[in-house]
Task: inverse folding
């Protein structure tokens, strides 16, 4: 059974600092997604990583995927308050005839002035 | 183009009642998936439908059912509501059955009293 673990679950940062969120998963998959969720809101797609070594960047966020290590990272550069949200990673479970995402518990990020 | 639309956005029910949640996918998307997100956790897969056929079902009791209509919209039904069914119910659509990015609606927030 595919399991997805994120750490840390809670992260309090100062503006201007850098930090990395980690996402480990337990079985083979080469499709990983990062989503952002603001309180009471739905899920906003940030990155789609589809192959080993994939790296994508958008603004102050950069995501990478190492399928051999079953690890993805979301790196935050020079954090700003607007990045405060919960960040989820999700992995495609490719077993069976259906398609479902298995999600981590999320990392609740607070960026403080 | 409209994104994934869900209705209602909020609703309150009492234990034992039933509820119907509705979802319209992005135009041209034939796959609809339903996820349950309990407060403080990642989403959990409930169902996937593709071309009006059920493709997969998560670990949810038979009180949960769904269907997809010829126009690819979908309904999620929950019978005999329990307090633990209180959650944000998210609908996601994708172009194909087992690949491609999932696009989420704003969700239906169900409170069971």
Result:
């Amino acid at each position: 059974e595919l399991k997805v673990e994120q750490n840390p679950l809670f992260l309090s940062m100062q503006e201007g600092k850098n930090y990395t969120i980690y996402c480990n998963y337990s079985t083979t998959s080469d499709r990983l997604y990062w989503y952002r969720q603001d309180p009471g809101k739905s899920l906003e797609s940030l990155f789609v990583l589809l192959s080993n070594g994939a790296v994508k960047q958008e603004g102050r966020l950069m995501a990478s995927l190492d399928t051999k290590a079953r690890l993805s990272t979301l790196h935050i550069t020079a954090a700003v308050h607007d990045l405060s949200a919960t960040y989820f990673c999700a992995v495609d479970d490719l077993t069976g005839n259906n398609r479902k995402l298995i999600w981590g518990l999320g990392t609740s990020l607070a960026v403080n002035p | 183009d409209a994104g994934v639309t869900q209705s209602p956005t909020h609703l309150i029910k009492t234990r034992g009642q039933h509820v119907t949640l509705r979802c319209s996918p992005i135009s041209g998307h034939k796959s609809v998936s339903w996820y349950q997100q309990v407060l403080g956790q990642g989403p959990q897969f409930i169902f996937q439908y593709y071309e009006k056929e059920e493709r997969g079902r998560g670990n949810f009791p038979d009180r949960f059912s769904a269907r997809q209509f010829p126009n690819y919209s979908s309904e999620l039904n929950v019978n005999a509501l329990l307090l633990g069914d209180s959650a944000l119910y998210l609908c996601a659509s994708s172009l194909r059955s087992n690949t491609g990015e999932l696009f989420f609606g704003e969700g239906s927030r169900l409170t069971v009293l």
Q: What stands out?
A: Chain A has a mean pLDDT of 92.
